Every structure is written in C-alpha cells, then in structure tokens.
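Section 3.1 - Work completed
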Amino acid sequence: MPRAPKPKPPTRLIQEWPLSPAATLGSAVRTRGILLEIRAHLPFKERRKVDIESGAIVLRVPEDDEDDHFGLVKAVTSKLVGIESLPVIPREVEDILAIKPAERHRWLKDGRLESAGTRTVKLRGRARKITFHVFDPRHIEDVLDRDLPEVWREEDSATAAENRRRGAQKAALKKAGKLGGSSGRAEGTVSGEKQSSGLKGWDDFDLDGLLR
C-alpha cells in the first residue's frame, strides 16, 4: 500500500503579499516563477517559509515559532517592489499566451515576439549552462490583449497554403519541361532520320500527311 503523506505541522501566518494581475498576467506558471525569483534571493534555510496561497505570496512559520521574522518580511517586501517588470521566461510566455514551443520559436525568429534580451542560468546539479530569450511583460500583455496568437496562426496557415500552391506549380512546370525535352529529342530523331535516309521524294511524301 502507498504510504500516507506525512501531515504538515501547524503554522501561523506572518505576512501576505497579494500579487496584481499586471504581475501574474493571469498565469499560474508566472506566479510560480515570481515565487522562485523571490526565494532565490533569500537564505536557503528560509526559502520554504515563503510560498503561494490563492495567488498571493505568504510567509508562514511553525506555530511554536515566536519570532516575528522582520528581516525575512523586509527582504520579501523589497524583492516585490517593481515585480510587474520582472522579465517573462519562455515557459511563462507559453502558458500566458496558450502557445506551443514551436510557435514561440517561429514568432521570435520572425520578430513578431520581441525579445527583451537573454538570460543564462546553470541547471541545478549540472555543470552545463543554458541561455534563453526573455520578454518584456508589457509586450506579452499587449500580445495577449490583442489576441495576436490567433491572428498569427491564421497568417501562418495562409502562408503555408500559398507555399504549397507555389510548390505544386513549380513541380508541374518542371514536369512539363521534362516532357517537352523528351518531345524535342523525338522530333530531332525523326528529322535526323529524314536527313540521313537520302531517299528521293521524302519531302513530298511528308507533305501528303502520311507521317502525321
């Protein structure tokens, strides 16, 4: 039988910081990203005391902890100043706009999604680093408000259809050119036979239409 989860010890709420829609952009992934950004600037042993509840950042401590944790409250409050401007990372963009990674890559490459620069991070437990584009939250908010992903999908669909039409037309012209080349070679062969035969009256025979 699976082991029952260990019950959490009772806690008490020290402070709560509601997050505005301008900060979260309506995304649970973005909200989680804000939490991770805050935790990254806190002492390691204090990070788990800060969490998310109902779209707000909260600070909870064990019930028997009588410390007011003023320093931790100050650190979180300071980090939340201007949090609405925190760059949006790729997985957040995909959740906010409800798009696929392939669409993000394509629209970033052709400039419809505007990069706000790059960010390099080291994967936990690994020596390798990765670099990725980040985005201005106001740009992503504008794309969302104007429903541009749907517009861009329609544009991409029309472009793909046009490319298929041109491809088919090009293939047809190429095929027709090959057939034309074969016909020309056949005509050249007949003409060569006429010239090399040396038969008298051949042209008159041709004019009578017997070779058509």
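Second construct:
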Amino acid sequence: MRRSRWGWRAALSAGLLGLALLGATGTAARTEAPLQDAPGIAQVALADLPPEAHTVMRLIRQGGPFPYDKDGTVFFNRERLLPAHKRGYYREYTVPTPGLRHRGARRIVCGGWEPTVPDACYYTADHYASFRRIAP
C-alpha cells in the first residue's frame, strides 16, 4: 500500500479545523434541526409511569450509577419509530421490572448530545415496539 506524503498533514489540518470549530462550551457546534416528534408518538406524564421509571430518570439526570452495563449506551433507532438523528444522539436505559431476574422489556430512551440534559426522553414497555414521549 502506497502512503501519501500528505497523510499526516491532512490529519493535522483536520484536527486543527476541529479545534477551531469548538465553541465556548467546549463542544463542537451541532447543525441539526430542533427535535420534532415522529407522527404517532403519544405523550405520557412521568407520574403515570411505573415508580422504577422515576428512579431511572433521576439517575439519567445525575449521570448514574446505572445498575446494568448496557445502560447509557447508544440506541441506534433501528425501528425508526423515533425522530431521525445522527448516530450517538439516542441512549438507552433499563427500567427494571419487579420480579424479573433479567432486564425485561421496559426502557427509557433519551435523545440529546449531553446525556445528563436530554432534549427528550421516551418510554417503551414493549422493548422498542412502541414509544411514548415523557412529558417535560
């Protein structure tokens, strides 16, 4: 494989450009449109969700610690039921089901670039077959 003599210069330029794009908050500027819900997503009040969901929402806002290794990992939205966003925008969290020894089907999926300050969170009781937006 032939190496380009410009390879390291191009990488350096890209890195410097990335640094130049950093804002005052220290994060790269995002150019995505504001969050809009996909058609057919109903809302639900946090008070109407199981008590375990309240605990999970509190843990999300404080940054953990989470009981499951998978909590806080990227949710890929393969079902395409949530509004389309770039990879890494959505993260998933387990809502424990009393009496089960495994993770169960209940989840909260939050969207946003700062995990502790989500733009919106969604609840599913049927392992991503349907979602309801948790009212702010």
